[in-house]
Predict the 3D structure of the following.
Amino acid sequence: MTTLAAITAAAERVRGAVRRTPLLNAPLLDRIAGRRIWVKAECLQVTGSFKARGGWSAVSSLPPDTPGVLAMSSGNHAQGVAWAAAAHGMEAVIVMPADAPQVKIANTRAYGAEVVLYDRATENREALAARLSAERGLVLIPPYDHPEVIAGQGTTGLEIAEQAAETGIDAADVLVCCGGGGLSAGIAVALEAAAPTFRVRTVEPSGFDDMARSLASGTRMRNNAATGSICDAILTPTPGQMTLPLLHDRAGPGLSVSDDEALRAMALAFHHLRVVAEPGGAVALAAALFRDDLPDQVICTLSGGNVDPALLTGALAATPA
Amino acid sequence: MTTLAAITAAAERVRGAVRRTPLLNAPLLDRIAGRRIWVKAECLQVTGSFKARGGWSAVSSLPPDTPGVLAMSSGNHAQGVAWAAAAHGMEAVIVMPADAPQVKIANTRAYGAEVVLYDRATENREALAARLSAERGLVLIPPYDHPEVIAGQGTTGLEIAEQAAETGIDAADVLVCCGGGGLSAGIAVALEAAAPTFRVRTVEPSGFDDMARSLASGTRMRNNAATGSICDAILTPTPGQMTLPLLHDRAGPGLSVSDDEALRAMALAFHHLRVVAEPGGAVALAAALFRDDLPDQVICTLSGGNVDPALLTGALAATPA
């Protein structure tokens, strides 16, 4: 189980490599929401998402003679692992679907990784990764079900606790964009020790609320569909084996928002916070803005900003300041 | 003359009110530029620009029984003064042209200010302001030629010095977006004491390089035109009486960039830093990206993010990641 000690150790390892992202706030955004909203802007993190934390934490915990690392991801985890491996002088192989966005493939290569493309229709990703790992001695870094990945994401929670104290926030719900639950679980463990009056609430896309249902039932529930939301970064089929128990003991009831609410949150983040959010990174802000059953003060993660410009352009046209 | 002591005193007054904005950097942006670029992201400042610093510094230095403050501005200075006055429980009257962007008028009102509109063609702004000031005892806060405004903007320089030390940057050119010169002069005074190996370079739109020419000649030169660049926030006719002497003794030669370069910098800031920049706030980043005659490492201000979404959308369409 991930502990505060593991998160504190990860925080030591990531120091100087990942960024202490700001806790943003905007009076005009608060007015729209009818509550005080603080935004932990992980879209400003190196590589554009919190995944740089978990990537660095995992890579830096490996023996220095590790031949290299391997990850399966079409997006933010790919970039986080590629960047961290390069900085450690370690080879990185990223298995990506051939139809992944060209810009994400190009960025992953730009961070120095070898990208191995596969055909989603005809090839088995796990078998391909297992073969590469065996042949070349590469260590697999999973996107969330890994102790050092969860510990790395948890460093976000330590910063939230510090920044809340600096800002005079003594209690709040902390809304976290949730896919497999690595970021949510890491923050929950960190806050339990560092800010026990804070409570994590996971936020997912409507129809893909496997974590909310799993938290309610106590067992790992699955989504009915694998696609069908613009929030691509957080469409995982089911909670992690490690993340659900951590969250079940610590988080409040899960929340969900519609794709349209995520788009409106992206537009309002642009207008009032001047940051770029991707849909899956904006769901927690959307809940903070549009859900009624929340306290007067909330903190939310804005967890990634690797967005197709056309998608944000459409959101801006639909949502004036 | 603005001194380090005045800036340090301003830093004490603005503490807890304005934000210590992050110093951002992106490996893929560095690759495009061919040099290391650090970005002081004042677009993430409260009210969306560094003008919150000067506004708060000036308002907080007034006697508490001051009836109110007055500013003439169609943009960022208006919002900075309106926000600061409201937080001090002080009335704010902002004289704005009737054809200013509706969103800037609406935001200035949303911060609690009384907006007095005038017709650029038929009314004299200075006479209107003088009458309002006399009738209602309002204190005028100029946009740059004011000691406490310059001292407030100079707090940006203290933060740059601190953050550069934390990051291990021991020498750099510091490129600053320049209109009347308040931000440039404040930063120059702060760095002279706090980071003497750093040198300020002003950056202006091509054709509106009154500061660059004034630095070269030693006297206040004027621009030939009042309009004709998209960089509306920094199209001042001539350097300030206070700012030019401060800069003449401290800054290197001034730089300038084209509107197209400013637009490309806005798009690259979106893609790689995930922040929203306005044209006048992006000129220093444009110089960092596109000028050849600069050192291997530069720091630049990204000084504001209050942009018309359509303008950024066009920039994104023209400049891929």
Q: What stands out?
A: The mean pLDDT of chain B is 95. Residues 71 and 94 of chain B are 5 Å apart (CA to CA).
